Structure formats: structure tokens, C-alpha cells
């Protein structure tokens, strides 16, 4: 078994095509992040790993600093190998890993292999749309974000990240990519909620679109706006992809209920592990 560090996003997408086609939902974030990098989005550092056994790719991971190491599903031996390689890459770049994100069990194995102490910071559910049930009777209307919404989008992305306890990059290339992929729900012309989507990921087994982030300011909650704007993005993605999915905080029953009411079904689990500071 060996771990290869690939030169860039295009090579990563090509090398992992079969792996991602075998599990397009659980590898979707790997595909969408790499697609974004290929399109010009930049991070503090970008590292793309594949794990090979007997010439076949059996695992994959990417690290876009300052975010956490992101893992595909893989067996324990592959997870250990990629965790070790990521720790070596971190030392070479003199940039600390913030943590690991991946399937339960796989993430813990990779984190242990880095030699770093970690805590389990967040559990997420992977939901996939089955029978779409758009909400009815919510006042207002959806509209796609426009250039004049740039400052609002940046502010709401920051507020979402603060509430969710996640990092957010709001550099111009990230906002440039996010703006045309964002919808606002408006009441009397005033935005009250937003939802976006990641780049659609194509694989030989089908195209997958992932919704997120979804954010409603506190003063506009409990009116159905979040479900309504999510439904608007679902309607758009269904014209582009055969599968629509999203991630939701397992500890937030309100958001889980909203998505389940739209027709999303729980299909997998992901864990986020945070490393103790060096």
C-alpha cells in the first residue's frame, strides 16, 4: 500500500473517478472541493492524496488549509496510511492540521495515525432527497443572488459559520463561486433567508448536487423561510443532477425536521474531529 500526493485538483479528480463513482454521495464533498479548486478557488494550502493497493485507488483525502483533512470512505489500513501521510505533509508545510472529517471510524483511525490528541466536535447526518415535497403557504418568493448581494452574502456566511462552529473563507474567489449558486427568500423584497449549493459533481454513476449553507437570521426564524429557500435550490439542482443531498447537524432536531419534511432521508453519518492545539 502507498499514499501518493498528487500535483493538483485535476489529477485528483481523474485518479479518484472510479472510487467516487462507487460512492458518489459520501465522496461528494471531495469532488466539489476539488472541482472548486480546479475552477480557481484557492486556500492557504492544498494537498490531494490517494491511497493505492495493488495499483488500485482504495482511499482518497484532501486538505485545504485552514480546513480539516477530508476523507473518503476507506478501510482501517488505508485510513492509517493517509493519516500518517497528512501529518508528514503538515510538518513539511509548517502548517498544523485543524482536524479530520470523514465517516465514523475512518476519521478516528486517520486522526490517531497523526499522533495528535483530538476531540469529537460535531456529528453530521448525510441526507439524500427521495420524494420532493415542496412547502406551501410560505409568504414571499425566491430569487437568485445578484452582484449587489455580495456584502450580504459575505456577512451571512460569516454568521452561519459562527453559529455552526465552522471556518469560512470569504476571499473573493470563494464569494465569486458562491454568488451565482445562492438563492434568497424575500418578503416584500427584503431577504430573510438564504440557501446555496456546491458545484455539481459528475461521476460515471450520475451527477450529484449538494445544498449548503442554509441560513436564516434569528429574527426571521420559525416562519418556514429556511425550508422554502431550500426547496427553491432543490428545484434548481433537480434540473442539473440526478441526486440532491445535504449535510445537517445531528444535534439540531429543528433543521432535521425541516429537511425531512421536504423529502430528504438519512443515509449516512459523518464525524468532525478537532485536534488539540499544538
Secondary structure layout:
Blueprint: E1 2-6, H1 9-15, H2 17-22, H3 28-38, E2 45-53, E3 56-65, E4 69-71, H4 76-93, E5 99-103, H5 106-114, E6 118-129, E7 141-144, H6 150-164, H7 172-178, E8 182-187, E9 190-197, E10 201-203, E11 206-215, H8 225-237, E12 243-249, H9 253-262, E13 264-275
Parallel strand pairs: 4-5, 11-12
Antiparallel strand pairs: 1-2, 2-3, 3-4, 5-13, 6-12, 6-13, 7-8, 8-9, 9-11, 10-11
Helix pairs in contact: 1-3, 4-5
Question: Can you put this structure into words, describing what you see?
Answer:
It contains 9 helices and 13 strands. With about 280 residues, it is an alpha+beta fold. The protein folds into 2 domains: about 1-125, Gcn5-related N-acetyltransferase (GNAT) (Aminopeptidase); about 130-270, Gcn5-related N-acetyltransferase (GNAT) (Aminopeptidase). Strand 4, helix 4 and strand 5 (about 100-105) form a beta-alpha-beta unit. About 40% of the residues are buried.
Return the CATH class of the largest domain: Alpha Beta
Low-confidence stretches: none
Mean of pLDDT: 95
| SS field, number of helical segments | 9
Instruction: Quote the distance from N terminus to C terminus.
Output: 30 Å
Query: And the CATH topology of the largest domain?
Result: Aminopeptidase
| Structural class label | alpha+beta
Largest sheet: 13 strands, mixed
The second-level CATH architecture of the largest domain is 3-Layer(aba) Sandwich
Binned, the helix content reads: 25-40%
Radius of gyration: 19 Å
Number of self-contained structural domains: 2
Give the CA-based shape: globular
Beta-strand content: 25-35%
Amino acid at each position: 500500500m502507498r499514499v501518493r500526493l498528487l500535483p493538483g485538483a485535476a489529477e485528483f479528480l481523474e485518479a479518484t473517478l472510479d472510487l467516487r463513482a462507487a460512492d458518489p454521495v459520501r465522496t461528494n464533498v471531495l469532488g466539489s472541493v476539488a472541482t472548486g479548486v480546479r475552477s480557481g478557488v484557492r486556500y492557504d494550502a492544498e494537498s490531494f492524496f490517494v491511497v493505492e493497493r495493488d495499483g488500485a485507488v482504495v482511499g482518497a483525502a484532501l486538505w485545504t488549509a485552514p480546513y480539516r483533512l477530508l476523507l473518503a470512505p476507506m478501510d482501517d489500513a488505508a485510513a492509517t496510511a493517509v493519516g500518517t501521510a497528512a501529518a508528514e505533509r503538515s510538518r513539511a508545510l509548517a502548517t498544523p492540521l485543524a482536524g479530520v472529517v470523514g465517516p465514523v471510524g475512518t476519521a478516528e483511525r486517520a486522526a490517531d495515525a497523526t499522533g495528535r490528541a483530538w476531540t469529537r466536535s460535531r456529528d453530521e447526518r448525510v441526507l439524500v432527497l427521495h420524494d420532493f415535497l415542496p412547502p406551501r403557504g410560505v409568504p414571499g418568493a425566491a430569487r437568485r443572488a445578484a452582484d449587489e448581494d455580495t456584502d450580504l452574502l459575505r456577512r451571512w456566511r460569516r454568521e452561519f459559520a459562527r453559529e455552526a462552529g465552522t471556518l469560512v473563507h470569504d476571499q473573493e474567489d470563494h464569494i465569486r463561486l458562491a454568488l451565482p449558486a445562492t438563492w434568497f427568500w424575500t418578503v416584500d423584497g427584503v431577504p430573510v433567508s438564504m440557501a446555496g449549493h456546491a458545484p455539481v459533481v459528475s461521476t460515471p454513476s450520475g451527477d450529484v448536487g449538494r445544498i449548503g449553507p442554509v441560513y436564516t437570521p434569528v429574527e426571521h426564524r420559525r416562519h418556514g423561510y429556511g425550508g422554502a429557500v431550500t426547496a427553491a435550490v432543490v428545484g434548481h439542482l433537480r434540473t442539473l443532477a440526478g441526486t440532491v443531498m445535504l449535510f445537517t447537524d445531528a444535534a439540531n432536531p429543528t433543521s432535521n425536521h425541516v429537511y425531512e419534511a421536504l423529502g430528504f432521508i438519512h443515509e449516512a453519518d459523518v464525524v468532525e474531529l478537532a485536534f488539540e492545539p499544538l
